[in-house]
Every structure is written in structure tokens, then in C-alpha cells.
Design goal:
The protein is of the alpha/beta class and about 500 residues long. It is built from 12 helices and 18 strands. It is about 25% helix and about 25% strand. The strands form 2 sheets. The protein has a 16-stranded mixed beta sheet that branches.
Length: about 500
């Protein structure tokens, strides 16, 4: 009996050390001054806006790695702190457009939708004018037109100016809706006449978006053209405007169109930065604390610093890591393994987190939660409550009934912040639940919480700078996240997955 009792006491000592000290002791090491120190570097000019697969991104990754090494955290990917992943980006290296031998200028008279054009040279001896190119229950601009294998010329917008501007492909008035209509009719290409888009105020980017795989060959070639180009295609010797084009007959117009778009695919490399703090008796279960460290880079010569988006989340992860390390040094480490992960490629379509979810280093079925931090340093100017004492909590109601009570209890005990859950509304038009890296965990069934301060006028602008961060408020938010992670890491059981997965596509 004495042996059994002694064993029980020893087990209690190894498993229950976390109960000896209030975790607020360790949360107190998360300070406004430390957050500012890290953010001044991460969102500084030397990081050049941290565009995915850029030199600035690599500098930011190196800084994060140095901090995790300083803390004594283990590499999260074998012997490496990096999980490298490829990114593919198309680049337009040659472009030409002429009508009846007249050569038109790039960005003055035409531009090409990179993701919607094949590489090659194309020649047509006619275009089919199809008005607005709309097909829906009321309109069919392709009635009595044979456009199979031909180039179609359409007007941007819709005849009714009150038509909703929903950009989704399901909207027949949107550009995507019109392109899909042209595809369904067998068209080889679409030229969209822009009333006021030319000449371009800013140069059109000749590099396309990034993706984890090489882009598929488009089903159709799409370009935007000026009224001058359209006039030439319609057989006019002088320019006519869009208003005049509205009155033209639909059908075939003879003209010689030469169209060239030569693309190459660049293979780039990005990386997620991952560090781990091993747990004790539940080391084979995982608590993820995540952010994205990439931003927009340099656009038209201006650095997009990304202090709030998501420099704030990035340095929050580092500070939370330090608090957990300090607890472990005192013999009060977490029962579950804590994984600190800063992903890249979020701004390109949640690419780093998607890569991780498809190539997980730690089993997703043993990952109890992802606490994702994306923008926690600012104040939403439209916020109606106590703007100095709130945070948006998103997704805690989606996959586990455990998350909301844990969050509420932690908040009530330590902070008494306003936990605003308005974006949990399934009808939220902002769709924030689908717009940050937690989404790729949730899509695999992992319970998540997304911490967010809302957008502001500096969102995705070069003015998102360190001097605008409210570090005192940020400190409180980050401590809330730490306390939440602490409770989840020490629980006897993993979080329940008792709410049905319902993940519509992004």
C-alpha cells in the first residue's frame, strides 16, 4: 500500500505541477515593451514587407528561428525549424496586341488577366460582339450567335446600373460570371471593353498569384481592352465610346486580331517556422498556436509594413512561447506539447497553413486545438463597445462545445474583456472565419479559435506601421490567449469534437 501511495504521489508531482502556481505568474512575462521590441524588428524596413518567398520573408523567418533558439525550444520539423514548401508563380514575359496591323500599347490600351490566359500567340480574322455577354434567366446575349472557337468582345458591367456587384462566379453580371458564360458557349477568348480603365494609373503586375501547384491551362483567354482597341475591332477608323457600342448589332465583325501572351512559371520557395515545447504525460497530443508572418511586400516602390497584419500575431506567438518556457523552467510545463507555428503565404491564399494541413508533422487527430492570432494590435474604428477592452473571438462555437466555456471562464477570472463573437454568425458577409490560417485546421476537423481586432483604414496599406499599435491592449489580448492555451494544454482530456463539421468552400 505504501508503494502504491508513493507512486501516486510521484505521478501527481509529475502531472500536476501546473496547479502549484497561478499561470498569471508566467503570463506577466508577456509585456507591451517586449511585444514592441519584437514588432519593431518584424515590421521594420529591413524586412521589406515580408512578401512570401522574398528576401524579406527569409529575414523574418531567420529572426523567428533565432528567438525560438534563444528560448531553447526544439525544432518543429525534425532537426529544422523550417517546413519548406514550393510556390509556383506565372510571369508574363512577352505581350503583344495588334488590330489590322496597328500595334497597341500595354497598360495604355490593354492588359491581360494573368491567370486567365494561355501561353502562346493567337490570331483571329473576326470577333463576335456579344453586348454585355450576360446569360441568366432574363438575358441571353449569345442568342443566335456562334462563338465556338472564336474571340468574343463584350462590355464591362451590366445594362442596369443597380445590378449587384457580387464578384462571385455565380453572379452572371460579374466578370467571372461572364467568362463562365463564354466558356459554356465554346468561346476561345474574351476581350472586355473597359470604359475608364485605360490608361492604367498603376502598372499592371506581370506576375500572377502564387499557388502550391503549377497553374492549370486556362479554358479561355481573357484580356481587358480600351475603347480604342474595341473600336478598331468593330471596324471603326475613329474611336467610339462604350455608350455608342451599346447600340451596335451583336454578331461577327471582320478584323485581324493578333494576340500574344508568353508566360513562364517560376518555382519559388517559402517556409513555415515551427518550434515545439514538449509536454509531459500527454506529449503525444498537441496545442497549436499560430500566426502568419508574411505580408504584401513592396508594391510600386512602397513597403507594406504589416505591423498589425500580421506582425502583431507573429510576435504574440513568440511572447506566448517565452511564457510557456518560463513555466517549464519552474517545473510547471504543459502536459500537452505546444507547437508554435508562424506560417507564410497567408496573403496568397492561406498557402502555408494549407501546406501544413496536407503535410502535417504532428497528427491532426491528436491536435486538440489551433489558437490562431491574426491582427491583435489595433482597434476597429467601427467598434461600438469598449474599444479599449475587447477582442473578436471567432470560431469557438464551430467544432467543440468545450471552447466557449473555457474562453469565458479564463476571461472572467483574469481579464473581463468584451469577447465579441459577432463574426460567428454564419451569415457574416465578411466571412472572417474563412480568411485566416485556422481555416485549414478547421477543415480537417481540428477545433479552432481565431483572435482578431477587426480591420481599419490601414489594413493592407503601407501605413500599417508599428507606431499605430496599441501595445497595452495587445498585451491584454495576448495574455488571454496564453491563459486559454494553458487550460487546454493541462486538461485531462482532449477537446471534444462534438459539433458537426460544416465547411463550405472559401
Amino acid at each position: 500500500m505504501r508503494i502504491i501511495l508513493l507512486s501516486a504521489l510521484l505521478l501527481s508531482a509529475s502531472m500536476g505541477m501546473a496547479q502549484k502556481t497561478d499561470p498569471a505568474t508566467y503570463a506577466s512575462t508577456i509585456t507591451a515593451s517586449d511585444l514592441k521590441k519584437h514588432l519593431t524588428i518584424i515590421a521594420g524596413p529591413e524586412m521589406e514587407g515580408r512578401n512570401a518567398a522574398s528576401e524579406g520573408e527569409r529575414k523574418a523567418a531567420a529572426y523567428l528561428e533565432s528567438q525560438y533558439k534563444r528560448l531553447g525550444l526544439k525544432p518543429g520539423n525534425g532537426n529544422s525549424y523550417l517546413q519548406n514548401f514550393p510556390l509556383f508563380q506565372d510571369e508574363l514575359v512577352e505581350k503583344k496586341l495588334s488590330v489590322n496591323g496597328r500595334v497597341f500599347e500595354w497598360d495604355k490600351d490593354y492588359s491581360i488577366a494573368m491567370q486567365m490566359v494561355s501561353s502562346g500567340s493567337f490570331n483571329y480574322n473576326e470577333v463576335i460582339f456579344a453586348g454585355y455577354g450576360i446569360v441568366d434567366s432574363v438575358n441571353n446575349d449569345y442568342a443566335n450567335l456562334n462563338v465556338t472557337g472564336k474571340m468574343v468582345l463584350i462590355l464591362e458591367g451590366a445594362p442596369n446600373s443597380t445590378t449587384p456587384a457580387n464578384p462571385r462566379a455565380t453572379n452572371p453580371y460579374s466578370t467571372l460570371g461572364k467568362v463562365n458564360a463564354a466558356i459554356s458557349k465554346g468561346a476561345a477568348g474574351v476581350l472586355i471593353v473597359s470604359k475608364s480603365g485605360f490608361p492604367r494609373r498603376n502598372p499592371t503586375n506581370t506576375r500572377g498569384g502564387m499557388s502550391l501547384t503549377k497553374a492549370a491551362v486556362p479554358k479561355i483567354n481573357v484580356a481587358s481592352v480600351s475603347e480604342e482597341v474595341a473600336s478598331a475591332l468593330l471596324g471603326r477608323t475613329s474611336k467610339i465610346n462604350v455608350e455608342e457600342m451599346k447600340g451596335l448589332n451583336k454578331g461577327s465583325y471582320k478584323s485581324e486580331l493578333a494576340f500574344t501572351a508568353i508566360k513562364k512559371t517560376n518555382e519559388l520557395q517559402s517556409a513555415n517556422v515551427i518550434a515545439v515545447l514538449p509536454g509531459t504525460d500527454k506529449a503525444d497530443e498537441y496545442v497549436f498556436i499560430t500566426s502568419h508572418y508574411d505580408h504584401e511586400g513592396i508594391i510600386n516602390g512602397e513597403i507594406y509594413y504589416g505591423a498589425d497584419d500580421d506582425g502583431s500575431g507573429t510576435v504574440s506567438v513568440v511572447e506566448i512561447a517565452e511564457a510557456f518556457v518560463n513555466a517549464k523552467k519552474k517545473g510547471e510545463g504543459p502536459r500537452r506539447t505546444i507547437v508554435f507555428m508562424n506560417v507564410s503565404g497567408e496573403e496568397k491564399g492561406l498557402l502555408g497553413s494549407r501546406y501544413y494541413s496536407e503535410h502535417p508533422i504532428y497528427p491532426l487527430d491528436k491536435t486538440t486545438v489551433d489558437l490562431n492570432i491574426d491582427m491583435v494590435g489595433r482597434i476597429d474604428p467601427t467598434y461600438k463597445g469598449d474599444s479599449m477592452n475587447y477582442v473578436y473571438v471567432i470560431g469557438d462555437d464551430k467544432l467543440s462545445s468545450d471552447l466557449t466555456p473555457i474562453t469565458n471562464d479564463v476571461n472572467q477570472k483574469y481579464f473581463k474583456m468584451e469577447l465579441d463573437r459577432r463574426f460567428n454568425d454564419p451569415n457574416d458577409t465578411n466571412r472572417f472565419y474563412y480568411r485566416s490560417d485556422h481555416y485549414n485546421f478547421a477543415a480537417k476537423g481540428v477545433p479552432i479559435i481565431f483572435y482578431f481586432n477587426g480591420t481599419h483604414r490601414d489594413y493592407h496599406r503601407p501605413t500599417d506601421t508599428v507606431d499605430k499599435i496599441n501595445f497595452d491592449l495587445m498585451e491584454k489580448r495576448v495574455r488571454l490567449i496564453y491563459h486559454t492555451a494553458w487550460v487546454i494544454a493541462q486538461k485531462d482530456t482532449m477537446l471534444k469534437r462534438d459539433i458537426p463539421l460544416n465547411m463550405p468552400p472559401r
